[in-house]
Amino acid sequence: MNNKILDIIGLADEKYLHEAQGEGQIKQTKHRRKISAKFVAVAAAAAVMTVTAGAVAVAKLSNKEGVREFYDSSAVSKMESRGMLSGKTSENEHFRFNMQSVIKDDYVCSCIFAVEPLDEKAQDYLEKVMGFDADAFYADNNEALYMSALTSWGWKEYKKGDKSLNFELDITAHYGKRNVDFSRPIRLEFKQAENDLNNKPYKDEKLLDGIVLDIPQAQKLKDVKLYSDDGKELYLSETGFVALVSMPIAKSEAEHKMLVEKGEYDLDFKIKFKDGTVKTNWDENMEAGGLGLMLDDTDVGFRQAFRTMVDVDKVESVTFKNREFKRK
Length: 328
What we know:
Oligomer: single chain
């Protein structure tokens, strides 16, 4: 596991993460790996495949199956009806990337991709690495978005001969002291991950040169802000929430043990709806991984993702980290 991610989620040592997972304190259902810290502008000559309107329509139809790897069928239907399925494609001699969907709220822009290997080198890469790095920048002026994008592997492992691999990429709007403006056009340039699945350096063959995609503007998800009695804020959108509460970093094994005992790493949550219905992270499709939002020693909270879409207008309260968050 990448040590940078351990810092982000509030753990200084990987063994603490394994210990916490064993005690049921931290649950991450998707493997996340941070992208390279160096973001560079994409060369203007990068080759991007253009497709006809008919091809885009066909791609959107096939994308529904790929998006279902990350969201339940009801969420996918809502995305389709609201124009959140994409059909953008970029390819080189080794890979074809198909952007399947784009959703965004005030804290994250999530894109789901299907990656198709076009030759044996690409198949070998997917089998041994699975992950990708991506440089992101504003497309209108090439300004780099530093330390802002995260790639997530799909729910299925790639096996040589498989037609494609699905994965998700998130761009976080508020990350430590840095902010990303989702109203501006954003471009992604994909490149090989530095290490394989065994954390050993993977040979640099520049297999993803020219894989460049602009993120299309997407309809913003519905949202609501909820507050606890002590004034903490929780931002709830249809596909997750961000709680602006402390996620402390353990600097020693003893401190980690103390924080576990105090429940600081207990990420269970409960959503109570106005009709009395209650959903928790243990319910189907309600838990799709979490991420502590910390950078440069600035703690800005914790983000929790769902595998479904909830109607925020029907939510009465959210309970998280021993606080109940309600409307003002």
